[in-house]
Design brief:
The complex is a heterodimer of chains A (234) and B (378).
Chain A (H helix, E strand, L loop, with lengths): L14 H32 L4 H13 L2 H12 L3 H25 L3 H9 L4 H31 L14 H8 L3 H29 L28
Helix pairs in contact in A: 1-4, 1-6, 2-4, 3-4, 4-6, 5-6, 6-8, 7-8
Chain B lengths: L1 E9 L5 E10 L4 E5 L6 H8 L7 E6 L2 E2 L5 H6 L1 E5 L10 H5 L1 H5 L4 H14 L16 H13 L5 E5 L7 H18 L2 E6 L2 H7 L2 E6 L3 E6 L1 H6 L4 H7 L3 H5 L15 E3 L4 H6 L4 E5 L5 E6 H4 L23 H10 L4 E5 L5 E6 H27 L1
Parallel strand pairs in B: 3-8, 3-9, 6-7, 7-8, 11-12
Antiparallel strand pairs in B: 1-2, 1-4, 4-5, 9-10, 12-13, 14-15
Helix pairs in contact in B: 5-6, 14-15
The structure holds adenosine-5'-triphosphate (ATP) and magnesium ion.
Amino acid sequence: MSGFFDIPSDLQHSWTGLIGLHMREALLPVAAGLLLALPLALLCGRFRWLYPPVLGVTTVLYAVPSLAFFVVLIDYTGQTELTVMIPLALYSLVVLVPAIVDGVRSVPDETLAAATAMGFGPVRRYAQVQLPIAAPAVIAGLRVATASSISLVSVGALIGNQGALGNLLAAAQKYDRPELAVNAVLTMAALAIVCDALLVLLRTLLTPWMPRGGTARPKPAARRAEITPEGAVR
Amino acid sequence: MIRIDSVTKRYPDGTVAVDRLSLDIPDRSITVLVGPSGCGKTTTLRMINRMVEPTEGTILIDGEDSRRQPVTTLRRSMGYVIQNAGLFQHRTIADNIATVPRLLGWGKQRARERAAELMERVGLDPSLARRYPYQLSGGQQQRVGVARALAADPPVLLMDEPFSAVDPVVRKGLQDELLRIQDELGKTIVFVTHDIDEAIKLGTMVAVLREGGRLAQYAPPAELLSRPADGFVEDFLGADRGIRRLSFFPSSALRPATDAVIPVDASAERVAATGAAHLLVTDADNRPLGWAAREELTGGGVRTDRLLPYGRPFVPGTDSLRTALDCAVLSPTGWAVAVDGDGRVTGVVSQQTIGEAIRAAHTAGRAEAEAEDEKVAG
Ligand SMILES: Nc1ncnc2c1ncn2[C@@H]1O[C@H](COP(=O)(O)OP(=O)(O)OP(=O)(O)O)[C@@H](O)[C@H]1O
Ligand SMILES: [Mg+2]
C-alpha cells in the first residue's frame, strides 16, 4: 500500500515540490493584483467618478467563473501556469481595490487636510500618509485574496495538470486513492492558515501606532469577505 | 503682509462662501477671523495657502500674487494647525513634528533635534517623543500640532479653531502658551475661531465675518467692544461686552487706600484711629490675612481665626480694571485688595473708586476715538 505522501509519478513532483508550485501559483497573482490595485485605488480616490465604473467592471469580472477565463486564455497562453494565474490575479484585484479604496477613505479628513497643508503632493500623500494608515484594511483584503487564491489554484487541474496540489484531487480518482484527496485538502488548508498567520503578523509589525487591546477601533472589513468563504472553489 | 484683495469663493454647487472680502493682515501679529458657523472662516483661511482656490480676486503675500510660486512651496512656508490637531496617527510624535523639515530635505538627525527643541518650546515632555498620537491627551496632541506647524520656522501660521476641541482649562493654557510663543517668535498668525472671547484674548486685529462671508467689522478688540459697527457685531459680542471691555483698561490709575490696612499686632489706639468699617489685617511680612469688622478689634488683639477671607487680590498696573472690579465684587466687604508683584499688600480699593476709574477710562476712550474720527474725516 502506498503512503499518504507518495505522489503518483505522473504528477512529476514530490509533495514538497507540489507545495512550492502551489504557493507560487497562488501568491504571484496576489502580488500582481496588489501591484495593479495600488495605482488603481489612488486614481479612484482622486477621481471619485472613477470608482463606481471600476467597481462595476471588477464585480462583473469576479462573477465570471475561472473555467470561462481558462477557455478564453488557453488560446493565447496555452496549458501553462500563466493561464491559471491571470484569472487569479484578476480576482485578487477585485478584492483588493475596494479594500484599499475603503481603507484610504477611512483616513480622517483632518489628517488629509493637514498633509495637504504641509505641502504633500497627491502621490506622496497617498504613499506616505494614506496607505500606511490604510494598512490594516489592505492586509484584511490581502488575507481574503490569499486564502481564496490558494484554494482556487486547484481549478488549474482542469487544464493540463496546472493545479499543483489540486492535481492530487484528480489523481485520487484516477488511482482510487482517496488519501491523496485528503492530503490535498489538508495541505491547502494548512498553507492558507500559515499565510494568514503571516499576514496577521505583518499587520502587527506595520501598525505599532494602533491602540492594542480592547480599545482598538474596528478595522474596516474587506468587501466581499463574506461572499467568498475561504476555501470555496469556483 | 498678507493682503486679501476683493476675494470671492463660489463652490461648484453655487454656495458663495466668501463674498468680495478684503483684509490686510499685518506682519508679526495675530489676526483673528471670527464669526458664526458657516460664515466662510475656514474657506478664507484655506484660500491663503491655496487649499481652496478663489473664484475671483487675488491674495498677495508680501506684494506678490500667491499663485506665482509652486503650491507646495507656498504651503511649506505656512504652518497649519487644525481642530483635533490632524496628527499622523501612524507616526511618532517626533516624526510628526519633523514632517515639514523632512519634506524640505533636512537630514534625519537635524530634523530630530529640531523636533526635540520644539517639543520643549510648546511645553511637551521629551519622553513623549517616541509615543504615538493615540497615547496623548487632546491637549497634548494640540501642542504637537502647534509644534509641527512651527517645525520649519515658517513666517506664517494658519490656525483653524485649533483649541476648540479641548476643555476650557486646557484651552486657556494653550491660549496663554500661544501668546507666549508669539512673544518669542513674532509670527504672522491668522487664527480662526467662533469663540468671541478667544478672539478678543488673542487678536491684535479681529475680523468679524457674517453669513455669506461678508466682513462685518475689522478692528482691534478694544475698538470692537467699544464701537461695534452694527447690530450684528453687537449681538455677536454678547450681552456683557461692557464688562469684557474693562479687560483693556489698565488698573494703574487706581490709588489703593492704606488707612484701612493694619498689621496683626496693631495697638487698640491704631485701630481706633482708622475710620473704615472693615479693616484688612496683614501679617508681619505685610501679606493679607483677612478682613475684620472695626468694632471687633477695638479691644486690641486680633483673633486671626475669626477673620473674613480676603478673596483674590489684584496687582495694580499689571491687572486690568476688569480684574480689579472682579476682586471687589467677590470680596465680602466690597473692597478689593491690591498687592505688589510679590503678594505684599499695597492697599485696598472700593467699588466706588473702581467705578470712577471706569468712567474716567471711558471718557478718555471717547476723546481718543473722536480725535481719530476727526483725523480720518480731515
Ligand atoms: N467643498 C464645499 N462645497 C460646497 N460648499 C462648501 C464647501 N466647503 C464649504 N462650503 C460651504 O461654504 C460655507 C462656508 O464654509 P466654511 O467651512 O468656510 O465655514 P466656517 O466659517 O469655517 O464654518 P465653521 O465655523 O462651521 O467651521 C458654508 O455654507 C459651507 O456649507
Ligand atoms: Mg471652519
